[in-house]
Design brief:
alpha+beta; 5 strands
């Protein structure tokens, strides 16, 4: 390991330790009462219901010692079993637990991700972090603007975010304007073409078979929210494909400057064929993983397999199919656009 990499790892370690200490001692930054559990007495009420008597102290108010009654169920579907050492938020009356304080755990998970990212891509670590940070900030700004402007379309906001996100990502990934243009055209073309086909199919079939119950409780129009999720999910998949294929074409040209368009087309097409299956499977299992907990809960409560999966998988399956369609469309588009733009062939 090089000296520069060791220094960077040391700095990252110091930042992680400092951040972990901050999130472990930041109770005063919250307006809600923060309660640290020191002792728990548990009583079993039924086979599935338990009462906990929590003893501890407040971290951000003058009243210190406190005893709280807490009830949870065996499934922990809408409740949680608490343990000694947990930090929780209480309601304003200090009568019950409102939710568990998890910011420190989330930071530790993020820290593990950053360490792995730095170890395997230390040279690109700064660029990767800049891309993630800027995309997150842009998303938060657009989301905040949407919530404050009532008559603004959510779908329009996500379309705007998609364009900005692709532009920011390619700006950091490449300094070659032809390469950036190839990635942008391939990503946007594949994303919006697949998304448009999905919306057209949904309109023609009148959304038959889709179960919107799990998102129907939101205060905004649920179909707009689902359309937006289709767009963002497809964008993530197509961006990865476009970057991979265009980077492959760039590498081939670096090693064989005289390679013709047909050679570039064949090489990049082979790469696309090799990654089509794995990427589609990854996308499907990512969507599937979101419904596994609820599926198990439904099945344990006597639901049939048909009712369970038709209720929970319809939206996720449509999302996975749209993303898979985006991948399938982006591969030939990236091959065609990349091989011509990077080779400089305008025929």
């Amino acid at each position: 390991m090089s000296r520069q990499k060791l220094i960077g790892l040391l700095i990252l370690g110091i930042l992680i330790i400092s951040g972990d200490y901050f999130f472990g001692h930041n109770a005063k930054w919250y307006q809600e009462p923060v309660f640290k559990i020191t002792t728990i007495k548990e009583e079993k009420m039924t086979d599935t219901e338990f009462n906990q008597q929590l003893e501890g102290h407040l971290l951000n108010q003058s009243q210190q010692a406190l005893t709280i009654a807490h009830r949870y169920y065996y499934s922990e579907a809408d409740s949680v079993k608490l343990h000694v050492g947990d930090t929780v938020f209480l309601d304003k009356q200090l009568h019950q637990v409102s939710q568990v304080k998890r910011d420190q755990q989330v930071f530790r998970l993020l820290s593990a991700f950053l360490c792995v990212l730095y170890l395997f891509s230390s040279r690109q670590f700064g660029k990767n972090m800049a891309i993630i940070t800027l995309n997150t900030l842009v998303f938060l700004l657009i989301a905040k603007g949407y919530t404050q402007v009532g008559n603004f379309s959510l779908v329009g906001a996500m379309m705007l975010y998609s364009l900005i996100s692709v532009g920011l990502t390619t700006a950091f990934l490449s300094q070659n304007h032809r390469q950036r243009l190839a990635i942008i055209l391939s990503t946007i073309g594949g994303t919006f073409f697949a998304w448009g086909i999905a919306l057209w199919v949904l309109k023609v079939t009148h959304h038959a078979g889709l179960r919107y119950e799990d998102i129907g409780i939101v205060t905004r129009p649920y179909r707009s929210i689902y359309y937006s999720s289709l767009l963002i999910g497809t964008l993530g998949a197509t961006t990865d494909i476009a970057v991979t294929i265009v980077s492959t074409i760039t590498e081939v040209l670096a090693q064989q400057p005289k390679a013709n368009t047909k050679t570039l087309y064949n090489v990049s097409r082979n790469v696309g064929q090799n990654i089509l299956g794995p990427m589609t499977n990854v996308l499907f299992f990512v969507c599937l993983s979101e419904v596994i907990p609820l599926s198990l809960l439904y099945l344990e409560n006597g639901w049939t397999y048909q009712n369970t999966f038709s209720s929970l998988l319809s939206l996720e399956l449509c999302r996975a199919l749209t993303g898979g369609l985006g991948i399938a469309l982006t591969i030939p588009l990236s091959v065609l656009v990349g091989s011509r733009l990077l080779r400089g062939d305008n025929s």
